[in-house]
C-alpha cells in the first residue's frame, strides 16, 4: 500500500511537471487562435508564420551567436578551473572555487541588476556582447561541474608516464589529457549552449536594443493572436533542448565509459 502511494505521488508529480510542456505541441498544431479545448483541427499555419517572421529570425540569430560564444568561453574557462581544482593544491583553493560556483545559488535577477550597474558604470553600451558576459558568468559553474567529473576520473599515472617519456606539460595536456576528457568538454559545451539559449533574465536586463529569442517570446505574449505562433516556437525550442541535453548526456556517459569511472548521476 505504501509503495502504491509513492508510485501515485511520483506519477502526479511528473504529470504536474511535464503536462504544460506536453500541451505545447497540442496547441501548436491546433487550427484556432484561442488556447482552449475543444481543439478545432490540425494545421501547420503557425509554423509557417514562425518561419516567415523577420523579427523572430533576427532574435534567433542573436541568440545563436550568444549561445555559441557562451558555450566556447564558459567551456574554456571551465577546463582551466576544473583542471586546477582536480590536479593542484594551493592556499585558498576552496574559497576561490566557491566564489566561481557562487552564481549557481545567487538569484539571477540579483546577478542581472548587479551586472547592469557595473557595466553601465564602466561606460559600456548594452549589446549582444554584454549578454554574452552575463551568460558566461551564469554558465561557467555548470561547465565546471561537468568537467570536474571528467578530470577527477583521469588516471594520474598516465600523465606521469608521459613525463617520464620526455613529454612537456603542454604536450601531455594536449596529447593525453584532452583526448580523454573530450566527451566531458563536448557535454559541457552543449549544456552551456542550452542554458544560454533558454536564459531570459540576464538578456532582458543586458541586451539593450538587441532582441533575443526569450525576450522576443516575452514581448509577444501581450498579443493574443501571436500566442499560437509562440506555442509553435515553444515546441521547436523544447525539441531542440531535449536533443541537446540528450547529446550532452550521451557524451558524459561515453566519457565515463572511456575512463572507467562510476556514474554518480547525470542530466537525464
Automatic annotation (TrEMBL):
Give the bilayer topology.
Multi-pass membrane protein
Q: Where in the cell is it found?
A: Cell membrane
Chief location: membrane
Pfam families per the record?
Answer: BPD_transp_1 (PF00528)
Q: Which UniProt keywords apply?
A: Cell membrane, Membrane, Transmembrane, Transmembrane helix, Transport
Q: Which InterPro entries match?
A: Bact_Polyamine_Transport (IPR051789), MetI-like (IPR000515), MetI-like_sf (IPR035906)
Annotated ranges, domain ABC transmembrane type-1: 60-248
Q: Which residues cross the membrane?
A: 60-82, 94-120, 126-154, 175-207, 227-248
Tell me where on the tree of life, at the top rank, the source sits: Bacteria
| Keyword Ubl conjugation appears in the UniProt entry | no
Q: Which GO terms describe its biological process?
A: transmembrane transport
Q: Does the keyword Cell cycle apply?
A: no
Gene3D superfamilies with a match to the protein in the record: MetI-like
Quote the cellular component terms of the Gene Ontology held in the record.
plasma membrane
Entry similarity comment: Belongs to the binding-protein-dependent transport system permease family. CysTW subfamily.
This chain belongs to which protein, by name? Spermidine/putrescine transport system permease protein
Organism, by scientific name, is Rhodobacter aestuarii
